[in-house]
Each structure stands twice: as structure tokens, then as C-alpha cells.
Amino acid sequence: MSGRAQLMWDEAVTGYDFGRDHPMDPVRLALTRRLVDAFGLDKDVDVVAAQPAGESTLRLVHREDYIEAVKAASVDPAAADQSYGIGTLDDPAFVGMHEVSALIAGQSVGAAEAVWRGEALHAVNFAGGLHHAMPGGASGFCIYNDASLAIARLLELGAERVAYIDVDVHHGDGVQAAFWEDPRVLTISLHEHPRTLFPQTGWPEETGGEAAEGTAVNVALPAGTGDAGWLRAFHSVVPELIAEFRPQVLVTQHGADTHFEDPLAHLAVSLDAQRAVQVACHDLAHEYADGKWVALGGGGYAVVEVVPRSWTHLVGIVAGRAIEPEAMIPEGWRQEVFARTRQLGPARMTDGRWPVSWVGWDAGYDPADRLDQAVLATRRAVFPLRGLLA
Ligand SMILES: [Zn+2]
């Protein structure tokens, strides 16, 4: 029997803090958690604090010398070894960095265990989704790759087919790299084109290593892509691949930095489209993976206006009590936002774009359209490798 959905949370994850001028402000996690409570969603899930990932778990993905370097920098940040990507502008070292990074990873690993064992039907860790961390180094605000670790743990527990869908505006490069040669893991990333955005990878031609051709999928979207294009791209690529791969469990990364207000990237997606993709991932989990779904957060740097609403929608969907887009945001939460940030929080759970409409691939495509060119490039690069018609 599968129990209720789980929300993985330990207040200490808000200690993942690179400092005052860093864009990844942990207030985004705290405000999301409060908004979840403000809607009473904490009553609809089991709130679980998992143990931090231990050494043997971290080593499922990360190199021992890298873990040692993180630990050393965690004690003495001034001595961080930059050759591991730590102590840099993107990933400054801070006291306790190892512990809090392992704690976040532990929440994703715990989510994966609960879902695999049937203790929970779905589980969500919105503090996770740190998809840029590499086996041997930190990158792009990510120290340990909790998404990769969750997948590696699923494989360790016996999973033979795990699908990973990453809709963060940035390429899910660390997860792709971790399973590049592993045919058991299908990674699909939709992101802004590498020509215009970090980490400059995620080209459609990246389709997996020799032993795993066709298990890496990349949709490189033109800067400026909005709701209709983003949803068209998702639905023109993801469902067919998931249907063919037949995953036993679905892991999804929901970086909220595709939003038009996000300061670090150039897509123009609304909260309403983000919610629509969350619903689509939930549907795919039920249709193809027996409901087994691990949902993660990710990037998102509009920390007041966007992130809390986007991930509260995600928690609602995981909990089986989706928040309606039209819902008004409880006044108490807005007061807390003002007290903590001196900003006025949003008033509603929508950007006013609901319901978002888009046109399916079946209706045909326009070879001169840049969005359609992006979709076509992906389909042509990878669909034949999976026995699908491009
Ligand atoms: Zn991102």
C-alpha cells in the first residue's frame, strides 16, 4: 500500500546560504514552506525530515577527493580548493556547507526510498534539484547533486528504468553527466539554448554515451520562449519518450527560473504554465510509472514573486490537493513576506494566464519557426535512437 504523499523538510535546509549578495537566497525556501502551511497543505502530506546523505551514499555519485574538499572547505572556507569549483563566485564556501548540502541530498534520497518502497506514492523536496553539481566538482550554485543521488539510490535499490525530466531554465548537465553511460536512466532536459545561457551545454546532439545512446535528451529553447512555445515543446517531446521508455519511477526537477520575472535567464514562462507542466509530470507518473514520482525544486531567483508560488503549486499537486490558479494568497503570508523582505508579496496564485493554451505537434509544424526548429532538432537527434518516428 502506498501511504500519503511526503513533503521532505528539515528547517536546517535554509542554512544552504552562499551569502548576502548571492542570488540563491534561502528565503525562497522558507517562504515556500510558509506558503505551503498558509494553504494548509501540510495537513495533506506527511512532513518528513530525512537523515543527511552519508559518505557511502554521496559516493554513489561523487568522487571521494571532492567530498573531502567540500568537508575541508566546510570547516575552513578561506582554504577552499577552487579547482573543485568551491570558494568561487558562483559557489562560495561557507561554514557547514558539507552538512547542509548532505542534508538536502538526504531529503531527495529519502524521497526516492519512500516512493520506491511504496511508503509514499509521491514525494517532494523543493530544497533539492541541485542539478549542476558534477561527480568531481561544484558548479552553478550546486554542491552535491541530490537529483543524481536520488536516481543512483533508486538504481541501488533495484530500479532498472528511471526517467528524469528537468524543466529548469538551465541544462541539467550534472544529472546527464552522472548517467551518460547508463542505459537505465533516461534524462530529458528542456532549457534555454546553450548559446545564450549557463552552462553552455544541452545541445540536441548530446544523446548519451556509447553504452547508452538515446538516453540523454536535450531541448534547447530559443531565448524569449513563452508559455505556448514552452508547453508545445514539452508535449512534443516528453510524453512519447516516457511512453516508450516505460520508467518504473519518475524523478522531475522543477526549477522556477523559466519565469519571465527571473533575473538570471531569458525565457518568458508564467507561473500558470509552470503549474501546467507540474500537472503533466504528475499525469505521466500515473500513466507510466505506477504513480511513483519524486519531485524536486531547482533554480529560481525571483525569490518572493515566483518561487514560493510555483513550488506551493507543486506541493499541492503532489499532495493530491492542487491549489487553483485563481486562489487568493492568505494575508498572513504576505505580512510575513513584508516583514522578512520589505517587499510586497503577490496576491494570487496565478499570473493571469490561466488556462494556458498551446498547439500540439500533431497539428503540424513550421520549419521556419525557431521553436519548431528546436523541437525538430531534438526529435531528429534522439527519436530514431529510441525507435520513434522523428
Ligand atoms: Zn536553473
TrEMBL record:
One of its GO terms (biological process) is acetoin catabolic process. The keyword Ligase does not apply. Pfam families: Hist_deacetyl. Pathway: Ketone degradation; acetoin degradation. Residues 22-316 form the Histone deacetylase domain. One of its GO terms (molecular function) is histone deacetylase activity. Keywords: Acetoin catabolism. CDD domains: HDAC_AcuC_like. SUPFAM superfamilies: Arginase/deacetylase. Belongs to the histone deacetylase family. This is Acetoin utilization protein AcuC. It comes from Streptomyces viridochromogenes.
